[in-house]
Amino acid sequence: MIWWTEDPSRFRAEREAIAVLADGADWMTEPRWRLNESYQFVADFEIVRLGRAESLSIVYPSFFPAVPPQVMPREEIRISGHQYGAGGELCLEYRTDNWEPHFTGALMIQSAHRLLVGETPSDGERAEVASAHQRSIAQEVRGSTFRLVLGPPLMEVLSSMPVARVVPLLVDEHYYGKNWLAHVRRLGAEDTPIWAAVPPLADPRSRGGYAIRIPDEANVPFKATYEFVGDVLTAIEHAPALERLASAPDETPLLLVHRGVARLYSLSSGTGSRHVYEYRTVLTPADESRLSAGHVDLPARSVAIVGCGSVGSKVAATLARAGVGTMVLVDGDLMFSGNLVRNELDGRSVGMDKPLALAARLNEINPAIKTVAKRLLLGGQESSGSTDLALQRIGRCDLIIDATADAQIFNLCGEVARAEKKPLVWGEVFAGGIGGLVGRCRPDLDPPPHAARRQILRWCDNNGIPWTGTDTGQYDLQIDAEKPPLIADDADVSVIAGHVSRMAIDLLKGADTIFPNSAYAIGLDRAWIFAAPFDAYPIDLVMEGNWGPQIDANAAEALGAIVSEFFPKPTEVEVEG
Predict the structure, then answer these.
(1) pLDDT band at 1, cuts 50/70/90?
(2) Quick one: which of 260, 263, 184, 270 has its CA closest to 228?
(3) Which residues have C-beta within 8 Å of that of residue 277, sequence separation ≥ 6?
(4) Distance CA 378, CA 380 (A)
(5) pTM for this predicted structure
């Protein structure tokens, strides 16, 4: 966009406003207009203060007047304490957050003059000009590659440490997104820690070092240099730290606390004088719950997810974020590059067993979660013993989720849910991404899973519009699959997975349900029975059949026969005396 080609009258008005300002101000020279290489209009001028001229330019951006013009020095120098780096624009009273389109560039030049005069009111005098706005944490650390992430609870502990006492420190760090991110794992000795945290990183680089609180009255010239680190450790006279100052096979983190501010330095490995890395502290805000009160019990809940593909991986991630404490993950497939188009996992997992890869992902989301990975294809060519053990583990969970859209696996999950009287939630995406189905079965409130599925199929048959899709697709590519993969994109799968997750969390909370029905057909396209995307059809399920183990009318007689055959009577032994 080139704004002045669409609104040349506004350009004329800008020239006139700045010309009038220059004509009436003895501190500003006549502007000289030009076009830069990006076809942006630029006015060069000087602001005279204390007999010295500052060479400045005002640049009109492509989206002017929606955004304000920028005033900056014409050289790569810093002329103000309110400036975005050497040669960068001045931070003035008018900014993107308070700019209005009827404002003019002349106002920006006047603001620049007030800033420069305010900072140097007379020769040899420097004054602070109050900031007109607050920078966010993200803005403060934007240029920092090394960052220490610190929360308020730890900051309180650091601020209350004894002055000048060396405290053992353990730092976890990883390289992610072109940044080195450090977290304090432990403060104090391993057996008697002052403070400790659940590891926030799945596979960190851990390094031991020292934390020291410096007296508030000391004026400390903080610098990321070997000499400065040496001065601190020499003053403390801590022999182990001084040994590592002289020679260390690993980096040594040094956390210095002074006047309520924590600074992390890391002395590189080696001998003698060597490089010191300086970290920018990211003081995170106090943790505030972003979940409802009903989520408080979820860490004590366990969920079995059968199928770790498109739907299952997304459901697992959502439940991990909701705080579910234990997840049993069952799948016999590998992760392939073709799965990446709609899976929670990424390229790091290609070639891995899906349940193992998903377990690693869940630990990244929620380090406190416990995962059990079962590399098993239920209903496939697997050992009967392995299958039975997997079904037993599934049956011990508080909730079972079938995310496979496979009838045979649904039957197995449904049988476990019925026998163990555990709720079952399932979801499937219709081929072509036209919609999907979500359902639940609650013990003694809904029909058992097999009966529920029959009722849903009857609902489809009785709906009056036949199902025109195909059930030959699969959620995920399999190396030996005879069926083609299901055609649906990540948005389609995410919608259905979100509904499955919502229904699962509703069950885990244990309160009154928000769902008046136990099954829903949800449209994502104008096809079949759906008039439009998000067209939803609730499906009524009625009680049919019994939950719990199958009751044998002849149980007593049959059990007696088994006991007689396999548990013979004990031999009678005469005892003298």
Answers:
(1) confident
(2) 263
(3) 146, 180, 224, 251, 265, 266, 268
(4) 5
(5) 0.78
